[in-house]
Specification:
By secondary structure, the protein is α/β, with parallel strands linked by helices. Helices cover 45% and strands 18% of the residues. It binds one RNA strand through strand 7, strand 11, helix 8, helix 11 and strand 24.
Length: 893
RNA sequence: GGGCGAUUAGCUCAGGGGGAGAGCGCUUCCUUCACACGGAAGAAGUCAGAGGUUCAAAUCCUCUAUCGCCCACCA
């Protein structure tokens, strides 16, 4: 075994053995336990691994690997998303480099280009998941444009259409002029921008009393070209007299009415609103109520349309500047105020979106949301952390219709057919129609494709073969856990719950939803490739190994906080992998030729202690993963393995191990060595199993070298038995934990004295211990070998009536007084100062405890065990204070 | 305009009604037969501030401040 763990040498070959072993695939097993299923959030085909993926897929792999080791049939379903806008943008960019647009190549050829892109780049991220060690089912990779998936999408559309849940309408939608498509409300990102509120004077066609104009305010001056009325509040006395009057729209000359509408807030601006029905959803509603025209003044590319008269053809912001300038020139600009307002941006390309009137397809969401809300209320779906359910409820209870049509080419084409000949109502069909069912005339299919999320929402069941009633669907659905980033809670998670329940017998698609922390960079900024603030997980794996990266991420994953990425945790983790490697190397190096594995045995108090600690660890890890407390699990593993197993137990094992290996060792010593070896192997074996979900590579590499008893082995650690806490419970031993705790305290105390007085490690010392308890004396006498090995104590006296030797210092440890003779070594001045300081602290603590114990309220109301603990503390502190006083007296003279 | 989260050691963060914790960094010592990617010892914190509940508050409640995030059609 090499002296240091080398992830690069180990990971790829190991992964290949996993693939070859077929441990990833899982076929339905008739009868028996419900399987554990996870559907991966499908990465975009355009994507490559980023830190969010690294974290999320580590989380999934941890829960999946644990489940698999418990023996439960386990499957992690893998695949990628066709990512309509993102992929289309990539392919368009590529075409642009050839000097072409998608219109130059045509729809069919463009779609073929997209498939080509997918063939070239689609497996990149899959390869990266493999590098991470993710145990997905690679034998069954899905894509949201697979033929059967297309059928699923179409089935959902047709059924919802036939049930009246999908409809087409002319509405204000969010339009991205760069992507040239509609977006749903949640695909728009709002950002507060510094802008202005311009006040415009609109003249009345005829004066009303004294009044010849009305003043309106706007944040988007160019929209005035499309104004078709001015609205005021019906109860607003300032404007009572002009309701019903006519305004002449400046620059355009259109005559438009003044209407009264409740929507208007009299306290904002001037209390009079210019109404642009084609470019604002509220204005649209006002226009509907009052029967006003809807004038669309923008083209798809956000230039001004022919309706904009003299401004036609101008880019939108150019038009804005010109409108303002022209209004000012006409003396109609009354003022410009600074104003901050939220501007919507496209979530894919960050272009400012335009509210735009167009024909689109929508899903009526309220009927679908109701059962999905109920499912979260009654706990059929549980969010982790729980507070996310509030966010879910808020959105679901205020859900609005979903705009699902996109003016793209790459995606699932809307399966609706129109007959222009007879005007029959449009038909949504599972088959491509060639003729009108009514008149036999030619039909044309809707040009639009569906929102990518329309197909993503079917992921948990479409990847199991639905709409076919496959064996997989019957067996693996519903899935167990969904782990994802919070920014797709609405886009994806909520919609999966709604569509899943609607199509699969009202069953929720997963029991638990993990909303993992967002990974920010060290400066607290969002990690982003375009901003150059991202860190590439592949680089991290290069430096720290896959296990180092995974464990480092797990250490940082707690339920409540986002992660400000701390790379030093990955360094600690890769060091940890090396520590595991070397501890294992030590154990293996100290096994004999023909070593016979056997049951662990608590032959010494140290054995009993480590087995008890191991039992505690198993319970913590098992429970922790089951409840998604990844950070706590990682810390427990780290602490146990490094501090308890390596720092103490291995050191405690050395005397027995080495004594039993000497030429002249007697039978008892040889037997003790064998027991020690067996215990080391057992603890290591169990710890490796517990570590495996988080650090699959290093644990597997070592584990395969362990000589295990018949029945304890497996072809791979991946499928070895999980250490069930119940099976270890017999090893719990609180007495041993207390005893070893005392011993270790004494060792530390003596070492501290050694360090303080610079006693060379090789120089043996003798120690006298005075204790109140006869059991302490017995313990120390019995385990003297440990004190010798760990603290370099060569002679030692422990007694209830021991006397302090001359020229010695005293330390209190484990409730005992430990005297270390130090003839000629003590700097008495320094020692006095140190003791005085310690005494002051101890006296203060003691006073605090005494005050507490003098408090009748405390004695009456506190739990008895708490009071007992305080009394013990008081005794200990009193003892310490007395000891320190004595010491000071001795020195003080 | 609503809502959520955070504020603990120099840095990154755990914890959470009863004696302040980790990793990194820092100081000192140690190349002893698993590991210098190591070992041993150590310094370091008014747990943001103010009130309250409680026998007891870093922990629960209220308010304040600062930072971050989400939702929202006020032109």
């Amino acid at each position: 075994m090499p002296k240091a763990y080398d992830p690069k040498a180990v990971e790829t070959p190991l992964f290949e053995t996993w693939m070859a072993g077929g441990y990833f695939g899982q076929k339905p097993v008739p009868g028996g336990e419900r399987p554990f299923t996870v559907a991966i959030p499908p990465p975009n085909v355009t994507g490559s691994l980023h830190m969010g993926h690294a974290l999320n897929n580590t989380i999934q792999d941890v829960v999946v690997r644990r489940a698999r080791m418990t023996g439960r049939p386990t499957r992690w379903v893998l695949g990628t998303d066709h990512a309509g806008i993102a992929t289309q943008n990539k392919v368009e960019q590529k075409l642009a480099r050839e000097g072409k647009s998608r219109h130059d190549v045509g729809r069919e050829a463009f779609i073929e280009r997209c498939w080509e892109w997918r063939r070239e780049h689609g497996s990149t991220i899959i390869q990266q998941l493999k590098a991470m060690g993710c145990s997905c089912d690679y034998s069954d990779e899905w894509f949201t444009m697979d033929p059967s998936y297309q059928e699923a999408v179409r089935r959902v559309f047709v059924e919802w259409y036939d049930r009246g849940l999908i409809y087409r309408g002319k509405r204000i939608i969010n339009w991205c002029p760069r992507c040239s498509t509609a977006l749903s409300d949640i695909e728009v990102e709002h950002e507060d921008l510094d802008s202005h509120l311009w006040h415009f004077r609109y003249p009345l066609a005829e004066t009303v009393g004294e009044r010849d104009h009305v003043v309106v305010a706007t944040t988007r001056p160019e929209t005035m070209l499309g104004d078709t009325c001015v609205a005021v509040h019906p109860d607003d006395d300032r404007y009572h007299d002009i309701v019903g009057a006519t305004v002449v729209l400046p620059l355009i000359g259109r005559e438009i009415p003044v209407v009264a509408d409740d929507y208007v807030d009299p306290s904002f601006g001037t209390g009079a609103v210019k109404v642009t029905p084609a470019h604002d959803p509220n204005d649209f509603e006002i226009a509907e109520r009052h029967g006003c025209e809807k004038v669309n003044i923008l083209n798809a590319d956000a230039t001004v349309s022919a309706e904009g008269g003299p401004y036609a053809g101008l880019e939108r912001y150019e038009a804005r500047r010109k409108v303002v300038a022209d209004m000012e020139a006409a003396g109609l600009l009354l003022g410009t105020e600074d104003h901050v307002h939220a501007v919507g941006h496209c979530y894919r390309c960050h272009t400012v979106i335009e509210p735009w009137l167009s024909d689109q397809w929508f899903v009526d969401m309220k009927p679908l949301a109701a059962p999905a809300i109920e499912a979260a209320r009654d706990g059929r779906v549980t969010f982790h952390p729980k507070r996310w359910e509030t966010v879910y409820f808020h959105w679901m209870e205020n859900i609005r219709d979903w705009c699902i049509s996109r003016q793209l080419w790459w995606g699932h084409r809307i399966p609706v057919f129109y007959c222009d000949a007879c005007g029959a109502p449009p038909v949504a069909s599972m088959d491509d129609l060639t003729e009108c069912p009514e008149c036999g005339g030619p039909v044309r299919q809707d040009e639009d494709v569906l929102d990518t999320w329309f197909s993503s929402q079917l992921w948990p069941f479409a990847t199991l073969g639905w709409p076919e009633q496959t064996a997989e669907l019957g067996y693996f659905y519903p899935t167990s856990v969904l782990s994802t980033a919070r920014d797709i809670l609405f886009l994806w998670v909520a919609r999966m719950i709604m569509s899943g329940m609607d199509f699969i017998d009202g069953k929720v698609p997963f029991d638990d939803v993990i909303i993992h922390p967002t990974v920010f960079n060290a400066e607290g900024r969002r990690m982003s490739k375009s901003l150059g603030t991202g860190i590439d997980p592949l680089d991290l794996m290069e430096h720290y190994g896959a296990d180092g990266m995974r464990f480092g991420l797990m250490l940082q994953t707690t339920g409540n906080q986002d992660i400000k990425f701390a790379e030093e945790k990955l360094l600690s983790s890769s060091n940890f992998a090396n520590k595991i490697w070397n501890a294992s190397r030590f154990v293996l190096m100290n096994l004999d030729e023909g070593f016979e594995p056997g049951e662990p045995e608590a032959a010494t108090v140290a054995d009993a202690w480590i087995l008890s600690r191991l039992t505690d660890l198993a319970a913590q890890v098992d429970e922790g993963i089951a409840t998604y407390q990844f950070g706590e699990v990682a810390r427990a593993l780290y602490e146990f393995f490094w501090n308890e197993f390596c720092d103490w137990y291995i050191e405690l094992s050395k005397p027995r191990l080495f004594a039993g290996a000497r030429e002249d060792a007697d039978e008892a010593e040889k037997a003790a060595r064998l027991v020690s070896q067996r215990n080391l192997v057992f603890v290591l074996d169990t710890a490796l199993r517990l570590l495996h979900p988080m650090m699959p590579f290093v644990t597997e590499e070592i584990w395969r070298r362990l000589p295990l008893a018949e029945g304890a082995g497996a072809p791979s650690l991946m499928v070895a038995a999980w250490p069930e806490p119940a099976g270890l419970a017999r090893f719990r031993d609180e007495g041993a934990e207390r005893s070893v705790g005392k011993m270790l305290e004494i060792v530390v105390a003596v070492r501290t004295v050694r360090a303080r007085y610079k006693i060379a490690p090789k120089q043996a010392i003798s120690v006298v211990v005075r204790t109140q308890a006869e059991t302490d004396v017995q313990l120390l006498d019995a385990e003297f070998a440990y004190l010798n090995a760990l603290a370099g104590i060569d002679s030692f006296v422990a007694a209830t009536d021991a006397n302090k030797p001359a020229h010695s210092v005293t330390v209190v440890a484990g409730g005992m007084e430990v005297y270390v003779p130090l003839e000629g070594l003590v700097d008495f001045e320094a020692e006095r100062a140190r003791i005085a300081k310690e005494l002051a602290f101890a006296a203060e603590d003691l006073a605090k405890v005494e005050r507490k114990l003098a408090n009748e309220g405390f004695l009456a109301k506190a739990a008895p065990e708490v009071v007992a603990k305080e009394r013990a503390k008081e005794a200990e502190l009193a003892d310490r204070v007395a000891t320190l006083r004595e010491q000071l007296d001795e020195l003080g003279l």
